[in-house]
UniProtKB/TrEMBL annotation:
Annotated signal peptide: 1-20
All residue ranges annotated as the RagB/SusD domain in the record: 510-659
Short name of any one Pfam family annotated for the protein: SusD_RagB
Compartment(s): Cell outer membrane
Superkingdom of this protein's organism: Bacteria
Alphabetically ordered keywords of this record: Cell outer membrane, Membrane, Signal
Name of protein: RagB/SusD domain-containing protein
Single GO cellular component term: cell outer membrane
Family, as annotated: Belongs to the SusD family.
InterPro entries according to UniProt: EF_Hand_1_Ca_BS, FAS1_dom_sf, SusD_RagB_dom, TPR-like_helical_dom_sf
Gene3D superfamilies the record matches: 1.25.40.390
Main location: membrane
Length: 659
């Protein structure tokens, strides 16, 4: 019995010893924490990345010592050991450094914007995640990729070297924030965004040494167009912005965006660059008024491409292609006098060839001209050429300047001369349709292909087109066009229309008949409607000055139309006004229509001879054959032949009958 009792006591004592040993073993080998378990999954993921083997081995060795509960981590795996790996320590890394590379929580750095993200490691080290040049940096150390590798519940990123502690990062005093916008160079009412943010624009920073700008650093914008630069330069820092061929300066001016509405333009500074930049309308460049005087001109041009960097600057910068295509043929104020001079030169050449052609046609015996073929009437070809040259050159200018949105100060200066130029334009058409009948009506500059495919418009359409210019031309030159249209209607024997136009001119009271002096001796007087030209190569000139349209013509037209409409008394009054001004005897009541007709026609010949009317009047009065038939003139000579080269160049141009 006693022996059995001793055996029980011995066994009980042995069991106590065994329990104590088990407890001691449990204390020496505790269960892994949740963090350790997650790290084991991370290590498995790291083992698949060959370029971080040293870091992986170090983390394997450290993991058993870790004790934390986070199950979602972001591990910053060091690409290559900064120190040659050894079996001592943690393969060249300290435990503190390794723990700093294990960040609490899953961090998707690809979503990081321009703000700084503050992180904490498992040892509560502070880490700053920032985006620089589109690249994520952790305490200044860039990630090899912004996209993570997945391991367990955690993310793995690779860094180029050990992430330093915050205390080891140089402190910066200043922060500059830029947002770069790319101007919408294809703006339209449908595509009406002003700009889009510019990713990967390069902002380069410089220090200036004398006249030399030395590049010291650069950043790139992120996908939101934002670039942040931290620095310690209190002064003397400059920067430029570029993306491919785009920059913030265009033709020397700082770009501030794109106009997207007329209201923006109306409230903005006036453009006076004297370039095509002044063609301001929605979709064109918004330039910076540097000196703030409300006018954008040469004084606002930048002298350098380098911008001075303000400390802690925040700025929106707009960039545009430096090869942006601007409208061609921009006309400046300085160009206008030269343009007028050139057009006047072409016009006076046309007038000269008109007068010469008229003289040769109406006096063939004196000018070696042979009807009916008119083979050697070269002045007609020159007149045709100068006429369309004036029309085309004038329309090139008018089309540009009269475009909506053209600078008002240039339009204002243009309008001072445009009415006279339009009157000359109407005169050219009037003379040419009198000679050639049907004409090509040109209302805008034509391309080469269009020139080679145009057709002639009927004479009646030409007349109506010239008449439509009355409302386009401002006074007093509108009266010039009225006189010209009255001339053409009289040629067509549409006397009522011609009379009304002539009356409109008379009743306005802008012009008067001269005394018995010769108007051609004066550059201008109350009779001259379109004139004052000095043309030295006109045969048998009547004086120093040439006046293609005079008020005397209007009064003669009025008298002729009143006569042909049976208004004998009115016609007598009209012709007497002319005679009185010339100091000649007047006609009284009782004069016959034929006597009055003869008197009016004689006045036409006396007053308007050598001014390009003779041949036109022969056709108007239907006396071409009776007057020139002895020289071979035929009915078809009422119209001149179209120059053969025009027909050769364009088969759509048909020759006048008979030639």
């Amino acid at each position: 019995m006693k022996k059995a009792l001793n055996l029980c006591i011995a066994m009980l004592f042995l069991s106590f010893i065994m329990i104590a040993c088990e407890d001691k073993e449990k204390d020496e080998n505790p269960l892994p924490s949740a963090g350790q378990k997650e790290m084991l999954e991370v290590v498995k993921g790291l083992e698949k990345i060959s370029e971080v083997s040293g870091f992986t081995n170090a983390l394997k060795k450290l993991t058993p010592e870790l004790d934390f509960e986070e199950t979602q981590l972001t591990v910053l795996a060091i690409k290559d050991p900064t120190v040659k790996a050894t079996e001592s320590g943690y393969y060249g890394y300290t435990a503190e450094a390794l723990k700093r590379h294990i960040v609490k929580g899953n961090q998707d750095f690809g979503q990081l914007g321009s703000d700084t993200l503050i992180l904490k490691s498992i040892s509560d080290d502070v880490l700053y995640a920032t985006k620089v040049n589109g690249q994520i940096q952790i305490n200044g150390i860039p990630l090899a990729s912004n996209a993570p590798e997945k391991a367990g519940n955690s993310y793995i990123y690779v860094v180029s070297k050990t992430v330093p502690e915050v205390k080891d990062i140089p402190d910066t005093k200043y922060k500059m924030t830029f947002t770069i916008h790319e101007c919408n160079e294809k703006w339209s009412s449908e595509n009406n965004k002003e700009s889009s943010v510019s990713e990967n624009s390069t902002i380069t920073f410089y220090k200036k040494n004398g006249e030399i700008y030395a590049a010291i650093d650069s950043i790139r914008t992120d996908d939101k167009g934002i670039g942040i630069y931290r620095h310690n330069y209190a002064e003397g820092l400059y920067y430029t912005v570029r993306k491919d061929l785009k920059g913030p300066i265009f033709n020397g001016y700082l770009v501030r965006g794109i106009f997207t509405s007329q209201s923006q333009i109306d409230s903005y500074a006036q453009y006076r660059t004297n370039t095509s930049l002044d063609l301001v309308k929605p979709g064109t460049l918004k330039l910076s008024d540097i000196n703030g005087d409300g006018i954008i001109n040469k004084e606002d041009m930048l002298s350098t491409k380098y911008f001075f960097a303000e400390n802690n600057e925040t700025d929106d910068i707009f960039i545009v292609s430096n090869n942006l295509i601007l409208p061609e043929g921009f006309i400046t104020i300085e160009n206008l006098p030269l343009i007028k001079e050139s057009l006047d030169e072409t016009f006076t050449s046309f007038v000269s060839f008109n007068y010469t052609t008229n003289k040769r046609l109406s006096a063939p015996e004196e000018n070696n001209l042979r009807y009916p073929d008119l083979y050697n009437l070269r002045s007609s070809e020159f007149m045709y050429d100068r006429g369309y040259r004036y029309i085309n050159n004038f329309l090139k200018v008018a089309t540009i300047i009269e475009e909506p949105g053209y600078p008002e100060h240039i339009k204002k200066e243009w309008n001072k001369m445009a009415a006279r130029l339009w009157a000359q334009y109407a005169y050219v058409y009037t003379v040419m349709t009198s000679y050639y009948g049907d004409l090509v009506i040109v209302t805008r500059p034509l391309t080469v292909d269009e020139v080679l495919n145009v057709t002639r418009n009927p004479k009646a359409e030409v007349l109506h087109y010239i008449e439509s210019l009355i409302d386009k031309v401002s006074r007093p030159e509108a009266d010039v066009v009225r006189a010209l249209v009255a001339r053409l209607y009289t040629n067509e024997h549409e006397y009522a229309k011609a009379r009304q136009l002539a009356l409109d001119v008379v009743n306005r009271g802008n012009y008067y008949l001269p005394d018995n002096s010769n108007s051609s001796d004066h550059e201008t007087n109350a009779e001259v409607m379109l004139g004052g030209y000095v043309i030295t190569d006109i045969p048998d000139q009547k004086g120093k000055y040439t006046h293609p349209v005079r008020f005397t013509e209007v009064m003669l037209t009025l008298a002729e139309c009143e006569l042909e409409l049976g208004k004998i008394a009115d016609a007598t009054l009209s012709i007497n006004e002319i005679l009185a001004a010339k100091g000649k005897p007047l006609y009284y009541d009782g004069i016959t229509a034929q006597t009055l007709r003869d008197a009016i026609r004689k006045l036409w010949k006396d007053e308007m001879n050598k001014e390009g009317f003779d041949y036109m009047l022969l056709n108007r009065w239907d006396i071409l054959i009776t007057t020139l038939g002895q020289f071979g003139a035929l009915d078809y000579n009422k119209l001149l032949p179209i120059p053969q080269r025009e027909i050769d160049n364009n088969p759509n141009i048909k020759q006048n009958p008979g030639y």
